[in-house]
Amino acid sequence: xxxxxxxxxxxRGARGPGIVRPVAAPGPVSTQSPAGWTRxxxxxxxxxxxxxxxxALFVLAYPFFATPFFTFQIGxxxxxxxxxxxxxxxxxxxxxxxxxxxxxxxxxxxxxxAIFGTSSNVAISLGWPWWLALAVxxxxxxxFAAAVGWLSVRTxxxxxxxxxxxxxxxxxxxxxxxxTVFNGFQGFSRIAPPTLFELDLREPMPFYFLALxxxxxxxxxxxxxxxxxxxxxxxGIRDNPRRMQALGYNLTAxxxxxxxxxxxxxxxxxxxxxxxNGRISPGTVGTGAMINILIIAVLGGMKHPxxxxxxxxxxxxxxxxxxxxxxxxxxxxxxxGVFLAIVLFSPDGLLGLWQSLRARLPGPFTSRGRxxxxxxxxxxxx
Length: 382
What we know:
mainly alpha
């Protein structure tokens, strides 16, 4: 009764001349309350599209109908390379910093795992437990990436690319010429993934799901980070660094932190790659490998986190099946031709090309198609 009387009095006051009595607005709904969780769940369900469900079902069911070759050689390798390319996509697409040292960071993590863990070279490898060696390798690789960022963030454009390229080339020659720590040209071999709960991760299907779990974790982490205050500030620094500095943001700290985040992603991808190959050598971190990561990121689309994995799938498929059409020595020519075509016709990569095609071809699931259907519905109702 009191609440209804108060509402009626507020309404009568609002009708009075010059007298407005505002009604108190309801307080914010806590996310811990059932209403808050319901609202978040409904927002999540609205964000999910049919294509998301289809892709999720496909990647989960893929190893059950694919051969071990396609499961391990195509699927797992694409996910590992895509995770390394995702680190470059995050730096370039959201931070405006193109780094050619992402494969170097991945290779550094692989070397640290071989040095602190177990390998064929018992004279150098320390033989630590795999979980401890893995934690140390990821931590050191993240610090190494932050150091690379600290050196390069004070420059822009071509100078940043040249500094990261110089770091990558320097590490390549260090690994090739140092036999005390990096074992020189031979590197390390017999680096196998561990066995978890009696599950041998060296088998194609378990290793595929391990790579899939890491790829999904990296993808959703980046999707969340770019919407967080740090990601929004990083995009603001990319678009207008002077204004962000005038607002009080530390440009160097944000950029170095972005390099550290990207380094962690690249380090996880490097560990997956060394477990995939079973060895690490200077050729893994050479100039060709660094350029391949850039090609993968550009092929998929630098503005889309999922584009890194799309580009990796295309790259791995070409790498395995292009030799059926051309000689193995001309593989780089095929990759270069595909890369040139994508850059010329779709600077936003394959995903940008797909979005432009969807916009030009009206259908029931495009924006133009939905607009046409809604107009037809309105006409029929009138």
